[in-house]
Structure formats: structure tokens, C-alpha cells
Amino acid sequence: MTAPTRPIPQPGILDIAPYLPGKSGAPGSKTVKLSANESPLGASPKAIAAFAAAAQHLEIYPEGSSRLLREALGEVHGIDPARIICGNGSDDLLHLLAQTYLGEGDEAVMNRYGFSVYPIITMAAGAKIVMVDETDYTADVDALLAAVTERTKVIWLANPNNPTGTYLSDAEVRRLHAALRPDILLVIDSAYAEYVTAADYSVGLDLVGEAENVVMVRTFSKMGLAAARIGWMVAPDHVNDAIHRIRGPFNVNLPAQLAGAAATRDVEFNEKLREHNAKWREWLTSELSGNAMRVLPSQANFILVLFPDAETATRAFETLMAGGYVVREVGKSYDIHNGLRISIGSEDAMRGVAKILKSMGPAQ
């Protein structure tokens, strides 16, 4: 056997398809970025001020447990701060959960069009990802349960889901949980919870308080602090104990902690952002529905537009790009080749996108 001539990654690592972020437009071009579900109103002014003030203390290590941020989250959301763990974005926490609860021979179950990070973190932990077909682009509880085997250790559930914007009601999430073995961890990824307007939705916090095998994960990225990379989760004590054993000791930097705390308490700004999103999500959905386009009902800060075929979707993407709007292609990442995900942006951006897509003629 020939000896290796360079370091070799662990088995399975090179089988992982890397995460593909949304495009930002061509270098030097003036485009409106609608590909990453970022805040169209920027960040909370209070968060910006707190971030700037932190620059006076860059020589100091951040407090290791993100205490000030956890206290703000506990205050606003009615949670015991001791049950909250913060991370360098929610991806950091999802990775930690996978490393803690998955290993060689294990399986994790997700819906077909669930967040593309789930396969990455599952396979990186040495486990197998099991993708389950959906019903009309919505997670199917019965199908998820049918995929559970003795090897299943984690269920990944983005609710609302990225990139479809669809969601499961609180009753359906509870039905899913009730049928799981107690040793299976249900991870409810509520990254877009702030934008939900459906009356039958729940972020999952109540279920976390009632069960020993449920975790809720959240993020600040969709609420104006994507650059700061702040995520947080609420979990049972035994899960938190395990995560703390492998969590980086300073995994949330000081400016992020202070900005996150200020953003959490800026309820007025957060409500303004939520109202803006609800108004223009509904408007854009109404404007684009029909005209050979189908818009999935969304509860997030984006919509997924389905075209008759992949060629039409590509033409729509290129036409929007030429018009100054960059949206998210979801063919390579999610195998929805006839779809485009469009973030909810400013009023001008929404009107511009609608005008371009509605004016597209039939394929040549």
C-alpha cells in the first residue's frame, strides 16, 4: 500500500457538498441584493450604537457565557437565561448539536427541501442524512415519522422552512414530537420566527419546556445583524450541559453580544421590520401569483417563486440580474430547478422585481 503524500481528510468529508450562499452581484455592478434574506431596514439604531461603543474595549476577552445577551433574551422572551446558549450564528449551535448527538452509524432525518446546512453538519459528524419527501413543498409529519429507524438520533426541522417559506402548525409539530422515541432529539430551527403571522404557529418554546428531547434554535441574522453572527438556543438542562462541554469558550464576540442585547430590547424596531415584511410579502405574492408563476405561501422574509420549468427560472434570474436585482437560485442547493427565492426588500425593490417578472414574455 502506497503511503499518503499529504494529510487525508476523515472518511466522508469529501463527500459533503459545500454550502452555496446566495450571489451578491457582479463585482463593480450596482445591484439590489435579494438573495440572502437580510433586513431591508438595516439594523436597530440601538444595536448599531452598542456595537460601536464596544470598539472601546477590543482588548478585552468577551464574557464567556454571553451573560448580558442571555439576560436580554430572557427578559424579552420570558425565558430563564440559564437555559439559553448563544453561538457564532445559529449555524455554530447546529454544528454543536450534530457533534454532540450524532456519530458513525447514526441517522438524522429532515424534509427534502429543508435547510442545506443540515446534511453538511450531519455528515461532518459521521452520520447519515435521510431526506424525506414533502407534500406540496411542506414538511409531511407522517413521512418524517415513517423514515425513523432504530438508528435515528436527530430530527432537523426548519419552521418556517428555508427556502420554501412553508411551515407546520403547533399542532403538527406536537404530533411529530409525540410519536418520537425519547432518545431522539427534535431540533426546531425557528430562524424566521420573527416574521410569522400565522395564528396557529409556535416558535417551539413551550414544547422545549415540556419535553426532555426538544431544542429551539434562533438567530439574529434575519433581523438586521447578519454581519454580527449571533445565534441562540433554548434546551433542557442536560442538553445544555453537553453542549457547554464542547462549545468554544468565547464563541460570541463582545460587539455582537452588546449589539444583540440592544437589538433584543428594541421591540419597536423589530415590530416595524415585521410589519414591513408582512405588507410587502403579501403584496409581492399577490402581484406575482399567476402569469405562469406560482408563489408558495410564505411565513418568512422571502418568497419562493416557481416557474413552469428550469429554463424559464434561469431566464427570470438573468432578466432580474440585468435589471439590477440579484435573487437566489435554488436548483444546485435544493434541487428546485424551476424556483427562485426572493427576499423581501424595500418598497422600490419589490415594485421593481414585480415589474420585471410580470413583463417577461414567453420563452423564445
From TrEMBL:
Gene3D superfamilies registered for this protein in UniProt: Aspartate Aminotransferase, domain 1 (3.90.1150.10), Type I PLP-dependent aspartate aminotransferase-like (Major domain) (3.40.640.10)
Assembly notes: Homodimer.
InterPro entries documented for this protein: Aminotransferase_I/II_large, HisP_aminotrans, HistidinolP_aminotransfase, PyrdxlP-dep_Trfase, PyrdxlP-dep_Trfase_major, PyrdxlP-dep_Trfase_small
Residue ranges annotated for the Aminotransferase class I/classII large domain, each copy included: 30-354
Family indicated by similarity: Belongs to the class-II pyridoxal-phosphate-dependent aminotransferase family. Histidinol-phosphate aminotransferase subfamily.
Keywords for the protein's UniProt record, in alphabetical order: Amino-acid biosynthesis, Aminotransferase, Histidine biosynthesis, Pyridoxal phosphate, Transferase
Transmembrane segments: none
Annotated protein name in UniProt: Histidinol-phosphate aminotransferase
Catalytically driven reaction(s): L-histidinol phosphate + 2-oxoglutarate = 3-(imidazol-4-yl)-2-oxopropyl phosphate + L-glutamate
Record PTM N6-(pyridoxal phosphate)lysine, positions in chain: 222
GO biological process: L-histidine biosynthetic process
Top enzyme category: transferase
EC number per UniProt: 2.6.1.9
Pfam family, one: Aminotran_1_2
Pathway listed: Amino-acid biosynthesis; L-histidine biosynthesis; L-histidine from 5-phospho-alpha-D-ribose 1-diphosphate: step 7/9
GO MF: histidinol-phosphate transaminase activity; pyridoxal phosphate binding
Cofactor: pyridoxal 5'-phosphate
